[in-house]
């Protein structure tokens, strides 16, 4: 039986304690929509920013917080019986889903970059008082909007890892698509050893990079970077920028890295990353969000003939690629090492505070 309401973590006021409230479960499922029982959500830095009121995107309070979730289908609107890859979706199927894209704006049609859709609706930003109410992750039920892509989760991928695929990992997959081909002769530097950086190390390794060099901290994270396939790990705490450059130069006959990917999130990563990239190389930035600024000499890009690529979010195909990668490589790569504490919905304030205090990497909330 589907209840008439369910428990959800609701933000009514920024920075204030979050309450678990009863939120209505919509009676009617529109054509193309899904109602799911959310089984697991992982927690993301963006959740903390939403709670603190520091996001640039409009938040229509009160909202259900959380946006990295996996759910099991409990009801389908008409015509919602296929996922975005055309595979059958039934009651009981596990899915992850994307923000919406309208299919009719300039970016959806002419530019064919629906990731930039001007009318996109994202989860955890919409008011719980308007139907369909359940547009956030830390809740017992969730509503998948008709214009959201949805991707079946392979049976052998756990809820925790599927949740990870629905934000962090799909962004990594999208970044590699934006970056383009990796050759077996390429040396790849990954800046940052948070969840995205670690996943990027695994992705670059599987792509056949000749050498993968990770830059990050603390040491415990660098140990995971090694397990994920980094050949060399450079500590941000124990090396200077000059020392890191010397290592990269030594690994590349003095040329610099063919490819540098940024997942560090600190503005200073940008000039360093450009400096580490060889002439004619490619630099991709993913983690640099927010309003941070840095001094930078643009002629470096010109003189090196660099390609500088920005990559944000990910479409259906990136969700699918992330899930498929987890399924294919989880026996060799210990993805679960990214996950940190395990919590219940009632622990939402504890887990967000711990996230804010950087005591967690990628905590997991189990709804049931
Ligand atoms: Zn996220
Ligand atoms: Zn659009």
TrEMBL record:
InterPro entries: ADH-like_C (IPR013149), ADH-like_N (IPR013154), ADH_Zn_CS (IPR002328), ER (IPR020843), GroES-like_sf (IPR011032), NAD(P)-bd_dom_sf (IPR036291), Zn_alcohol_dh (IPR050129). One of its GO terms (molecular function) is zinc ion binding. Residues 9-365 form the Enoyl reductase (ER) domain. SUPFAM superfamilies: GroES-like, NAD(P)-binding Rossmann-fold domains. Keywords: Metal-binding, Oxidoreductase, Zinc. It holds the Pfam family ADH_N. The keyword Thylakoid does not apply. Its cofactor is Zn(2+). It comes from the Bacteria. CDD domains: MDR_TM0436_like. Belongs to the zinc-containing alcohol dehydrogenase family. This is Alcohol dehydrogenase. The lineage of its organism: Bacteria, Pseudomonadati, Pseudomonadota, Alphaproteobacteria, Acetobacterales.
